[in-house]
């Protein structure tokens, strides 16, 4: 079993993603109803931005908390720290 991993920003991220999820469901309905493509594209853009912001918040929070903890750890090596940074930075 994996260790529970939570940060102060997670509730905010969850709320943002739930709103994006609801918005995405409404976009599906818009497509099914035959709404104009420009309206649909505009709404998809809004969802995309919300998800990207949630991702950025998660990554920056990880850098501020988890990676900082690794740097301060006496057990961590510079190779481990660099590997951790490279792993998370791929998603920026």
Molecular structure report:
- With 92 residues, the protein is mostly helical.
- The chain contains three helices and no strands.
- The chain has helices at 10-33, 37-72, 78-89.
- α2 (37-72) packs antiparallel against α3.
- It is elongated.
- The two termini are 28 Å apart.
Q: Which keywords apply here?
A:
elongated, 92 residues, single chain, mainly alpha
In short:
With 92 residues, the chain is mainly α.
Q: What value does the average pLDDT take?
A: 86
Q: Label the structural class.
A: mainly alpha
| Low-confidence sequence ranges | none
What would the principal axes of the Cα set say about the shape? elongated
Helix-strand blueprint:
Elements: H1 10-33, H2 37-72, H3 78-89
Helix pairs in contact: 1-2, 2-3
């Amino acid at each position: 079993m994996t260790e529970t991993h939570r940060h102060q920003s997670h509730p905010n991220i969850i709320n943002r993603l739930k709103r994006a999820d609801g918005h995405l469901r409404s976009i599906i309905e818009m497509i099914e109803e035959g709404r104009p493509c420009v309206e649909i594209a505009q709404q998809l853009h809004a969802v995309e931005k919300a998800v990207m912001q949630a991702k950025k918040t998660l990554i920056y929070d990880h850098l501020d908390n988890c990676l900082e903890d690794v740097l301060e750890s006496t057990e961590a090596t510079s190779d481990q720290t660099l590997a951790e940074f490279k792993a998370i930075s791929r998603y920026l």
